[in-house]
Amino acid sequence: MSTPSKKKSLKQPDTKLSSKESSKNDKIQEEMRVLESEIRSHQYFYYLENSARISDKEFDLLFTKLKKLEAKYPDLVSEQSPTKLVGSDISVSSDFEKVKHKVPVLSLENTYNTEELLDWIQKTDPEQIYSVEWKIDGASIVLYYEKGILKRAVTRGTGGVGDDITENIKTIQNIPHELKSKIDLYVRGEVFMTFEDFEQFNEDFGGKYANPRNLTSGSIKHKYASEVAKRPLQIYTYDAYFPNGRKNIQTHKQALELMKDEGLPLSPDTEFISLKEMEKHINRLKKKKDKMPFPIDGLVIKINHLALRDSLGETSHSPRWARAFKFDAMIQESIIEEIIPQVGRTGKITPRARIKPVQLAGTTVSYATLHNQDYISQLGVGIGAKVKISKRGEIIPAVEEVVEPGLNGVYLLPKKCPSCNSKLQKVDESVDLFCINLSCPERMKHTIQFYCQKKQMDIDGLGERQIEIFFDKKWIQKIPDLYNLQNYKDEMEAMEGFGEKSVALILNGIEKSKSKSLRTLLPSLGLNELGHKVTELLIENGYESIDSIIDLAKNNNAIEILNSLHGIGPRTAEAIVKQLNDASVLDMIGKLKKSGLNFQAELVEKSDIRIFENQSWCVTGSFENFQPRDKAMDLIVRHGGRKVTSISSKTTHLLYGEGAGSKLSKAEELGITIINEKEFIDLLKKDNIPYSNEKE
Ligand SMILES: [Zn+2]
What we know:
The chain is of the alpha+beta class and about 700 residues long. It starts with a helix and ends in a 10-residue tail after the last helix. The chain is about 40% helix and about 20% strand. It folds into six domains: about 25-90, Helix Hairpins (Orthogonal Bundle), CATH 1.10.287; about 110-325, D-amino Acid Aminotransferase, Chain A, domain 1 (2-Layer Sandwich); about 330-425, CATH 2.40.50.140; about 440-515, 5' to 3' exonuclease, C-terminal subdomain (DNA polymerase, domain 1, Orthogonal Bundle); about 520-595, DNA polymerase, domain 1; about 615-685, 3-Layer(aba) Sandwich (Rossmann fold). Bound molecules: zinc ion. Zinc ion binds near residues 417, 419, 420, 435 and 440. Zinc ion binds near residues 417 and 437.
């Protein structure tokens, strides 16, 4: 402690020293922040893109440098440091810490048609302005920012208590770890996946996931944050709570503007609408919804004025100042008579409810899906429950709400497979149960059905019902049996509902499938991780026949070799090697070969007009003139280009169409030439290259 008399003389050198020190600290701090952001962006490219832009060694150097600085200057370590993220991968477990929400997280009451919604507005306050927002079908979370720093991310959970999934959520690219200003803010948001990202990711996992929502909610609860980082997750935030008072924020609109200014991502198309314009606006959005790249299950309509929200308050379940609006949902009440666990192709168990038949959207509905155990438990559904059933678009009818729970308690899925009696297991993520027995009869039946689908071998006349009948008669038990089905021609023709014509169609379709190439055949076999994308990657890398792929799988270094191919990760490499060394898989392939199936990739004939020479093209979205989009890819290859399935620093062009997902923004980020359908056609026209105008 300095006495007042000494203070003056001491003050001078003191400040000098501290300013010198602080400027040095500033410099180090800046260096650390730069290192952090560099590491984070490399992690992003590595995890999300499978495309490292620097070597592992270079990456390690950056990492070590940051770690050394952090050890030397512990006071300057940022809470968001990537060194912390990686370290915590190990400690994150599937049993997440339960956290009590600081503000109860309520769910919204639904309205199912415009009249119901307008009626609610009339009763609430017809003079007010209401916000109309997309209701994104993902996983709901709450982000807790304290002094501008993301402290916790918590699942909605029961509404009162959720799981702390902070480390997982921090891996999502568009989420700010730090806001622009040092405010306290609790933010609600929805984690989701675009359709395109979902399809691609799901294909790589053998179609294990039913929809983007299931994959999203499974992903955010994954045990390892490094695994979550590989998932193409995004987030939109839509509401803010100000724990220290709202100050000059009076409306939801202002709150959203503030959120945007703070760097929080908001969903597109939010508008502020009066009662007079409401119906027109909703109709506009109804039309637009199918063009949106992410899953939407309706709209959310909220009162704009925050003080009015406060005065309206909430019931124990939901706020009185907001409603969800479900698009074209047809709702009926019914009773659950039975719950049947169904085994899918991948072994996934889906509980299906048999209900007392009701009329919905002009059809009689007798079954509705219950998705999985989590869904059942959340709703509290059991046999005998009175429920609301919905049907939206082409989606399978679903149980939406429980009206009366019934007397039998909440339904629990069995522990054993209803088809083969093997023990059911949770695989990777916790949401679904699986039968992992590869020769499970139910799985086999679905595998044959999958093989015949339009997207796969496209066998005419062989729909799910026909396959089911032939399977039960034991005429087809495995895929190769299809090619002996002609042995039962007479029996088939004699069967009710078949006849000569339809039998001829089926046998013809089976015969025609022999002309499909490896490109279609391999992914149609339904092997784990061996979907269309991985098959393409193998062909791109010169593995153009099944024999060359099997030879590769036999190689002692197979996993390393596969892993070194751009776009194939360790999990995929392992699955390929394991399955292509499996006797039953090899037996199936041998039998199919004997039946004359084509296990060779057809190659695109090269043209002399090589306008895409030395270019690497990635194609995303859907196109009017190129359906399927392979047609555009073939044109690129025919004219000298190379096609790639994911964006990396080596990609030179991105051709994008309707519904393009995250690839578009990544291409922008990397400064890749981005081309739309019209520009692509113009390129072709310049050299008089014909392109197909007709849809097939
Ligand atoms: Zn089974």
